[in-house]
Design brief:
Length: about 425
């Protein structure tokens, strides 16, 4: 409804607006609870588990954006391409801050890198992955890129862009990307030796940048004690949206879960038992939002926050986190059967193979194990030793029964270590 309303209000507008940004991705409201349309912040409201907008906010935003006049003859330098936007930024917080010029430059150099890899993938010093942008924060990747192609890869080519990149190729790769709900590449043009944007549009992006940073900084402040934390650490979800609470204030506001619902079926849980009355039993820092439960046995494990609930889907990474396996075994069914939910079985097997498998007798390097095929009850798992590059790739076959035995041994070790602590 918000998209339809905005589309009607902006008919004939010179802005390259993408109303698709009104349908937020998972966690989009985490930063500060708003979606930007140009330089207009529209707040998201959570009601009965669904995010919504106030119709009045959408109409005010649409009317304000419809009044913006974009004169394509009145332009300013867009400051692209310029590698300087990737230098001297050592902190993650700096990279998280809204910066539309840096974002534009990132798209340009990422596109140039992808085009270059396509042209010389067979000679690349590191594996080519066409689905990933070039990560300018990764010094190792940057070094590999420079080593493989030389610093000339960043030189401005005949099309006014790095290397052999053309504007059509840039639009093909990144034309659908948005900044503040708009598509800047639709308004980017070349004038002489410079890439330019309409002045009114660039001014609007400057205002967006300033307002987004202000909202993000405000969202870092604990609503209890007013201490300031990092951008993401203290954000916790509630029935009406995200709030910011430091661990100390969360501990005072919400009670710790003592396991009193262990063995209770999730289907029989009464409304009087609200998950958001408790601290998350995994991170013990944020307010819980849901009751985590085993989908195979139906037993409650405990109250968890949205972040920890999402992280549970990370497989091996979740299993490596302290207390995660013990949390899964809060399900009485899993504990009595000395097993884990089936979706974790292959993850346990992959971790086990990386522990015990090696390339040859003399190689001490831990290999990487990857999911491969599952045929007639047998997992075909590929292992690769990066120390010996293409010479060390092999496959292990693990049946479902063997995987169950590995999981049982893993659970036994976990139970033994916790009972002795």
């Amino acid at each position: 409804m918000a998209r339809d309303t905005l589309t009607d209000l902006l008919k004939g507008s010179g802005l390259a607006l993408d109303t698709g940004d009104l349908i937020p991705g998972k966690g989009q409201f985490l930063a500060h609870g708003h979606v930007f349309l140009g330089d207009i912040a529209v707040r998201g409201y959570k009601d009965k588990g669904r995010w919504k907008y106030d119709d009045r906010d959408i109409r005010r935003a649409g009317q304000a954006l419809a009044a913006v006049t974009v004169d394509t003859a009145d332009v300013v330098d867009a400051a692209v391409p310029d590698r300087g936007y990737f230098e001297g930024r050592d902190t993650s917080n700096d990279w998280d801050r809204a910066d539309w010029r840096r974002e534009l430059n990132h798209w340009i150099y990422a596109a140039a890198q992808r085009i270059r890899w396509h042209e010389a993938a067979d000679h690349a010093p590191v594996a080519y992955d066409p689905t990933n942008d070039f990560d300018f924060l990764d010094s190792e990747a940057t070094s590999a890129f420079d080593t493989g192609f030389g610093s000339s890869s960043y030189d401005i080519g005949p099309h006014g862009l790095p290397g052999e990149l053309t504007f059509d190729a840039l639009v093909s790769l990144y034309g659908e990307r948005t900044i503040a709900g708009t598509r800047p590449l639709m308004l980017l043009t070349r004038s002489g030796k410079h890439w330019v944007l309409p002045r009114a549009y660039a001014d609007m992006l400057d205002r967006w940048q300033e307002r987004d940073r202000a909202l993000a900084e405000q969202a870092q402040i604990c609503t209890g004690c007013r201490r300031q934390g990092s951008r993401w650490a203290w954000r916790t979800t509630t029935a009406s949206g995200y709030v910011t609470l430091c661990p100390a204030c969360s501990g005072e506001a919400f009670q710790a879960y003592k396991g009193h619902l262990r063995g209770v079926a999730y289907s029989s849980l009464r409304r009087m038992h609200r998950a958001d009355d408790y601290l998350c039993c995994l991170c013990r820092e944020s307010r819980a939002s849901i009751w985590d439960h085993c989908h195979e046995h139906g037993h409650i494990r405990g109250p968890v926050c949205a972040s920890c609930n999402t992280f549970e889907g990370k497989g091996v990474a979740f299993l490596r986190r302290d207390g995660s396996v013990q949390h899964l075994l809060e399900c009485r069914g899993c504990r009595e059967a000395r097993t884990l939910p089936r979706r974790f079985h292959l993850d346990v097997v992959l971790e086990h193979l990386e522990d015990v498998e090696r390339h040859g007798r003399r190689c001490s390097r831990r290999p990487n194990a990857h999911r491969s095929e599952y045929i007639h009850g047998v997992h075909h798992i590929t292992l690769h030793c990066h120390r010996h590059a293409s010479l060390a790739t092999w496959t292990k076959e693990v049946s479902v029964a063997e995987a169950a035995d590995v999981v049982r041994a893993f659970v036994d070790r976990t139970l033994s270590s916790t009972s002795g602590s």
